């Protein structure tokens, strides 16, 4: 670990030692997978230096914005420093290489062969810093027929079968969240941590290579391909549905998984006699469909809150279908102290803390997303 650059960027009220204090990360990424990964490392204490081109990370302007700054970008880049370098110029490239000399982790998510074209192959990076951990995130892999193709979240969801698996009726649909990008970020942060251990164990540089295609395939496999686990298995999807059920004033979700919970659900809706009839259905998928179809009508007779109270009394797993904004005022969310506020040049922003505690210590956000090039003078 390079100790000559240790710096604690936390505010006076937030100086608890974090696991990655003393680790420097250089991130040359755009979109979500690489930046969100680097933000997680920042939450864990790493000093993250985001290197942007003179025009800035193009994702700064993506989607909904406030005061000219994209909010998705803001939520994926807080707690970092920003420097502007033109890597296509000799001066900018040399400055970038100087940063890499004192860096523990280097993350990039360019298309394959972009690094080589800039003179930043892993061999060259390792020559500059023999103990660096380099993480390369691509869409489809370092080589192969798709390696040069652009890769975006919905494209990965479609290619891995997730769109069809989540079909509403017969019509495939994508999730309304950047699932593939965010899952790639979570896995990538895990790769970096393993890479640091491997680097320290063997005393030499490590090149971690991954792709969104590989990550989402790994993520999908345990349940989405459950009926293709055994090579000779030809069964259709057998996992029971996860239905949303209407109440008198809204919706709820029910997840009874044991025979007792199914029986208690029938008791709650006033029809315990249906239990014996359902027992006669031997096909589990058919039985589950029948169960939810039967209880759908009784659930419309009371409000969501009335049902939640009743299901809680009987220890039946149930929950509301909240709007996203309702989540922010959820009693358990408030109790867990997930969100805090940060002052920025454009106004106060809401930020979420790292979702784990270390010996009871909660790691609150270290700082807002950086202004473009705000740390050039300090770092260059």
UniProtKB/TrEMBL annotation:
* Parts of the chain that traverse the membrane: none
Keyword Transmembrane annotated:
no
Q: Which GO terms describe its molecular function?
A: CoA-transferase activity
Q: Which UniProt keywords apply?
A: Transferase
Q: Where is this region: Disordered?
A: 359-380
SUPFAM superfamilies to which the protein is assigned, alphabetical: CoA-transferase family III (CaiB/BaiF) (SSF89796)
Task: Specify whether Transferase is a keyword of the entry.
Answer: yes
Query: Protein name, please?
Result: CoA-transferase family III domain containing protein
User: What species was this sequence derived from?
Assistant: Vreelandella titanicae BH1
Give the source lineage, highest ranks first: Bacteria, Pseudomonadati, Pseudomonadota, Gammaproteobacteria, Oceanospirillales
